[in-house]
Design goal:
This protein is of the alpha/beta class. It contains six helices and five strands; from the N terminus they run βαβαβαβαβαα. It is 44% helix and 17% strand. Helix 4 (92-100) links the parallel strand 4 and strand 5 (106-110).
Length: 144
């Protein structure tokens, strides 16, 4: 597993936030695996979610970020794959609990609803928070 790589993908509605997050992630010393999209032209979010999920499942990166307009479509798509726990986070508290209690490996954002600085802060909390295990581990096992 390459924990220095962060995979990121978006549809057209998340493109601008994706580009802002890439700059932040690189400044933090991570490598970025950008699965697209590369413009604001309309695309289908499942195509990009699947590319990012594949990177996580193949252990090219430990974590991924997915962004679409509401964050919901990306979350639904990613969570269809065994071993993926994608969490739509709107606050730093969401990001913290997603890691602590749910061992989330994909952070999902609503590109049309979250402020860039809040998204950056959510990523920092998400990436620096460990899974608590314990009683939460048995719940994660029930998911898969």
């Amino acid at each position: 597993m390459n924990s220095k790589n962060i995979t990121i993908a978006s549809d057209h509605a998340g493109h601008d936030l994706k580009e802002a997050l890439i700059k932040e992630i690189l400044q933090m010393g991570f490598e970025v695996l950008d699965c697209g999209t590369n413009s604001n032209d309309s695309v289908d979010y499942p195509d990009y979610a699947k590319l990012a999920v594949d990177n996580v499942l193949k252990k090219k990166s430990e974590f991924a970020i997915l962004i679409c307009g509401s964050g919901i479509g990306m979350s639904i798509t990613a969570n269809r794959f065994k071993g993926i726990r994608a969490a739509l986070c709107r606050t730093t508290e969401d990001a913290k609990l997603a890691r602590q209690h749910n061992n989330a490996n994909i952070l999902t954002f609503a590109g049309r609803q979250i402020d860039v600085d809040e998204a950056k802060n959510c990523f920092k909390i998400f990436i620096n928070t460990s899974f608590d295990g314990g009683r939460h581990q048995k719940r994660i096992e029930k998911i898969d």
